[in-house]
Amino acid sequence: MQPNPTTPLLWQLVQNTSSNTTISPLAASAANSPNTNWFQSLAYIALSLDLLATFGAVLGKQWLSHYKSNDHGKHRQQKLDGLEAWHFHAVLQSFLMLLQISFFLFEIALSAFVWSQQGAIEIAVIVSTAFSLFFYSFIVVASLKSLRCPFQSPASALVRILWRRVKDWHWKGREEISYDPGELEESQETLSVA
User: Do 82 and 66 form a contact (C-beta atoms < 8 A)?
Assistant: First the structure.
């Protein structure tokens, strides 16, 4: 995001045509501050991830409709085998993860922007952001402690898989760890139970 080259020219026009001499040049420079670009970048990334997750959800709905079409017998079993072979459940869960990441990026951008403005609402926005991060962390930790916890999420399944891999890597003398498809299916089953 490059600064707009017309802003100084417009500012000069406003100064030349305005009878009010109390206009500050800070208004022109505030629009191009590095903080503003940083906040906007986070917000645009959040929006892009949100749109991608929404697109994925629509595609997932179409895929499920195709699967539920009036096929019987062998053809339906082939579709079910295809869903399992292509890790359909994991793909749908990744769209949910994108949506959660998008939400947190937007919250961070909003909190940082409000903090830079030093307005009266900054405390309310930052407290609500901190509460949502704390709540989500609590839910992930609770679901990691117990597989019976009803609050299973894609993040907890991912952390569980990564923890097993790190533990296996550490205890096996740092040998090469092979991919175990059963591990992914086990985590998917915990998500589908919830």
Answer: no
pTM for this predicted structure: 0.60
Residues 6+ apart with CB under 8 A from 45: 105
- Cβ(57)–Cβ(95) under 8 Å? yes
The whole-angstrom separation of Cα 145 and Cα 59 is 33
HEC sequence for the chain: CCCCCHHHHHHHHHHHHCCCCCCCCHHHHHCCCHHHHHHHHHHHHHHHHHHHHHHHHHHHHHHHHHHCCCCCCHHHHHHHHHHHHCCHHHHHHHHHHHHHHHHHHHHHHHHHHHHHHCCCCHHHHHHHHHHHHHHHHHHHHHHHHCCCCCCCCHHHHHHHHHHHHHHHHHHCCCCCCCCCHHHHHHHHHHHHHC
pLDDT in tens, 124-157: 888 888 898 899 999 889 989 988 888 888 888 8
